[in-house]
Amino acid sequence: MWQREDVGRRTLGDWTFALRGDEVADLRRSGRRVLRSVRAVVRDQDWNTAPLLVDRVRATDASLTLHVRSSDLGSSFRGIVRIELRGDRLVVLTDLESEREFATNRTGIVVLHPPQAAGAAVEVGHADGTTTHTAFPTAISPHQPVRDIARLAWNDDGVAVAIAFEGDVFEMEDQRNWTDASYKTYSRPLSLPFPYRVLPGERVVQSITVTADVAREPRPAPPIDRIDLRAGGAFPAIGTGASTAPDPAPAVTPLGASLLVELDLGWAGWPAALARASASGLPLDVRVVIPDADPASAVAAAVAALRGLDVTRVAAFQPSGPARHVSDATATALLRAAAAAADLSAPIVGGARSHFTELNREQRRLPRDLEGVVFAVTPLFHSRDTEQLVESLAVQRLVAAQAVRIAGAAPVHVGPVTLRPHFNDVATTSPPRPPHEDLRAGYGPELEDADDERQGADELAAWTVASAAALAVPGVASLSFFEEWGPRGLRDSDGVDRPVAAAFAALAGLDGTTLLHGRSPDGLVWALGGRHEDDTAAVLVANLDTDGRSLRIVAGDGHAGIHLGPATWVSVHMGTRAPRGG
Question: Which end of the chain is more exposed for a tag (fewer CB within 10 A), N or C?
């Protein structure tokens, strides 16, 4: 079982919020949503997060004081986070003192705004006293939409919200780039050098003051018990990732349409990774990470090693420089030259090795004649809460649709989809590599903090169906989930199926059908299907709610009524008689 954060709500006057560790979550006034989250964060020089542990809580009628400390990643902060009622305003203050010198990329308060604010006009007060006007981005913004923030004011469905920031200069980024369900306002502009040093005895003191005027009743909520599916192109091919776990490899029956294998050419053991992947018998989706040293020779050797293998597509990424983790013209030219020399006819694709973020920000660097566009999805990049895992689903739909627009006529290949990052794309230090040229210690994600106990949870099966439903928009040609086996796999290291394997097999079984896709009414219930030539369909439905849900699924003239328990999924068969249009 995975745990949804079961926390009681706290009340200060007519303000309420959920307290999750040091996080003030789901902040509301008079029952109306104001902010998604406020919390203090400590990030090291590689953007890893040192958690703030709450030692004790002191409560009064007008305040809540959390005594906190950090010790991970070399940090040594002690101090408080206080939530305090001042008249009709709510103040959140953090005061942290470092015992030792600490290299950090960010230490201080971050504020998360709900994604439903998209399109809302916002007034920005700046440090010099001037005011400008903009809006929360509707399309996912590749760069910071708001900078130099001292105050923000906007209207969210009848609630007039204002926040004053003190203690540093703040700016905003669109966290939907990473499939987070939020916009984030944070301190210390990224234009300043990082990491920076917090010295022994130095204090980080920041605060926000929030006001919220509930002006009118919210808009009526739309019905949330119906999902309409419509036909649109081919059902995406469902693949998985090559295991990066240590040997020995268990004997397993191949699952899925392809196996995504990443070859870090800066590690001399990449041929062993390729050999293991090719032994699966599945067509290979190959991603090559070019080394800084002698890149042309390295790429040529890797592509030559693909001769005689069943390669469904191949991409190459820069490891450093302005096009870091991106398939720019230089990387693609090296790959094309090597493919021509090796007489390899597989499609040359490209995009971002990492998140949609880099695809969105660096799309200008992509050659226009790529035969496909790729990027990865990692919902637990900024936060490891199960709430974040669930809330990312609705944003995955936005990301997929925007990626299709970026790709134009080229097909989009999404993957790997993993719970935690398969590599640290923001690290300022060199990536960890095995000391051997074989797989006795594994490689890649095996050497990162990439394992998650929810990989073996029953609920991950429902999440995977929902993720596929969110990502499967027309123009998305393939989806690759997790690894074949191991700690991050569909199966464990002994080759035994995890619960998610059944959901993966059900998705993969829709290969060759016409995609039936539709929006979730609330981000918690999802459905997708495959229509056969006889106008019957298999439809997969998932419920990520904490309560059971009764739903009506409609596809053309066909419909089905179902009831799903919390965090479960089901496959239903139905007639569609749906129009043949896209």
Answer: N
